[in-house]
Q: What sequence folds into this?
């Protein structure tokens, strides 16, 4: 019986570490690129010591019950871990780990890809071209919005927010940001960033990019009131977690042109989209690809596997998010 259960096919780099350390017979992998059905998850985790978890899988009281008392670690292959009931894990003394750091730049790159794609209407105009609708250059065709020199608002100035801000320097964009805490003055000046309240952020940003974690406090931080407070020429970009934005109200705002556009990598009820979102030409939508590069996914799988190795060898896993269990 496997000691470790991996809930999906993962990059070889991570699997190799587990196989080499514990032997292939100790490692069970759900052999699919699709999400494991809930009943299979509950069955497969029974009696294991470690779960290598993918962010689409919910690790809640029911799943902890199904796993049982042998469970020593859940290693989530993501920096966000809102799919895990942390209170429940801590109550049961199970350490949870994540994969911070390695996806910062990759996610920041994607944020910029989305921002530029929305501002310059890349997906929409590409479809037009591929559809054979283009009859030649036109002075009013697919006019977008300049990016350079505009004000970039950052909601959540953690590692990824800072990496996004750093990239704005090349576009000569001043940064406004809100965050739980102010970053230090030297970093503010390096990033050309000014700490403001949310009201100012909404009012002054030409592009507003969300980088906060998803918690009870940040749920629906952006809804109809926020969209109404934004410039009607502004764009919202979200590469954090879907539920930070009220997606139905965003569809409404896009439809009414309360704001000019949005670019989303994450959605409230993945893989579902809010009704009408796929019909909004002013929304760029992609399927949660923030960390999706060969290099970064290999690093994430490696980190998750290394945390399992550490824990099953009796050490404190290096990326534990609930260290109070030790
Ligand atoms: C994460 O790690 O939280 C990302 O959303 C994965 O792309």
A:
């Amino acid at each position: 019986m496997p000691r470790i259960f991996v809930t999906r096919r993962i990059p070889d780099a991570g699997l190799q570490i587990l196989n080499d350390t514990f032997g292939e017979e100790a490692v069970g992998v759900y052999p699919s690129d699709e999400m494991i059905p809930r009943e299979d998850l509950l069955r497969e985790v029974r009696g294991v010591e470690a779960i290598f978890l993918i962010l689409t899988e919910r690790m809640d009281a029911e799943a902890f019950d199904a796993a049982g008392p042998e469970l020593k670690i859940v290693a989530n292959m993501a920096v966000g871990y809102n799919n895990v009931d942390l209170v429940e894990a801590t109550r049961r003394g199970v350490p949870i780990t994540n994969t911070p750091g390695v996806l910062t730049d990759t996610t920041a790159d994607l944020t910029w890809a989305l921002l530029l794609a929305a501002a310059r209407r890349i997906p929409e105009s590409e479809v037009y071209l591929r559809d054979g609708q283009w009859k030649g250059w036109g002075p009013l065709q697919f006019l977008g919005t300049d990016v350079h020199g505009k004000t970039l608002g950052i909601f959540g100035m953690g590692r990824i927010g800072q990496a996004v801000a750093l990239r704005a320097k090349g576009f000569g964009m001043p940064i406004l940001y809100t965050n739980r805490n102010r970053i230090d003055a030297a970093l503010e000046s390096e990033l050309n960033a000014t700490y403001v309240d949310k009201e100012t952020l909404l009012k002054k940003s030409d592009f507003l990019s969300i980088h906060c974690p998803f918690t009870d406090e940040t749920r629906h931080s952006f809804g109809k009131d926020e969209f109404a407070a934004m410039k009607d020429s502004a764009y919202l970009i979200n590469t954090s977690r879907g539920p930070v934005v009220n997606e139905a109200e965003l569809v409404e705002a896009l439809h009414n042109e309360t704001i000019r556009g949005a670019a989303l990598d994450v959605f409230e009820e993945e893989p579902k989209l809010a009704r009408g979102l796929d019909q909004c030409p002013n929304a760029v939508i992609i399927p949660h690809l923030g960390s999706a590069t060969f290099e970064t996914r290999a690093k994430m799988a490696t980190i998750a596997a290394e945390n399992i190795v550490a824990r099953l060898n009796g050490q404190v896993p290096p990326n534990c998010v609930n260290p109070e269990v030790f």
Observations:
- The mean pLDDT is 98.
- The first helix runs from residue 12 to 22.
